[in-house]
Each structure stands twice: as structure tokens, then as C-alpha cells.
Amino acid sequence: MSGNAFRGVSAESDSRFKDKEKKLLKATKFDESFSKKVDMKRVKMEAMMPWIEAEVTRYLGFEDEVVIGYIESQLQVTPVDPRKMQLSMQGFLEKHTTGFMRDLWSLLLSA
User: Fold this and answer.
1) In angstroms, what CA-CA distances link 23 with 18, 52, 87, 95?
2) Cis link prior to 50 (omega < 30° from 0)?
3) 49-83 confidence digits (pLDDT tens)
4) Are 100 and 93 in contact (CB under 8 A)?
5) Is 38 strand, coil or helix?
């Protein structure tokens, strides 16, 4: 065989490689408040960061700058999707993710 002969199917067309995030979004139950959008232009992140730092420290038992920075970066993506954010935070906060995201989203809505 010569050249760039590719045999088989691409990952996009193979059903074994479907988007796992879509499956998780359908399978996971999210807080009702996640249906409301937050205008991040009205949120003062300087005021939110101390709360986020304290909550992460409380849940993890130590201050983790990587997790705190990750949360801050997730809140800078426009528009913020709390469902996707909760899924991405699951690996860090584990069983505390649902409560953290519910509290965070309610604070963001009230800002």
C-alpha cells in the first residue's frame, strides 16, 4: 500500500465513539435553577472568589489553587453552562459537586 490510504471508519461515524458528555447531560439530574441564565457581566468575580476559595477548601480539606483556578476559568466562558460545569467539576469535588454548584449558581443568579 502506498500513500495515505485510510481504511475503516472515522471516530465521528462510529457509534462506539459517541459524545460521552451528551450521554451524561441526559442521564444526570440537575438543579432546577440551572434553567435560568446568569448575566456574567453583572457578577463581580472579585466578590465571588473568596466564597469559592472557602467552599473548595471546606470540601477538599485544603486550599487547592488548581481547582479554584479551574472554576474561575469555567466562569469566564460565555455563556456559562452550569450543567457542563457540574460534570467537569465532578472529578475534583466528587460527592460535593451537586451542592457546590447549586449554591454557586444561586449566588450568581442573585448577583
Assistant:
1) 9, 28, 11, 20
2) no
3) 999 999 999 999 999 999 999 999 999 988 899 99
4) yes
5) coil
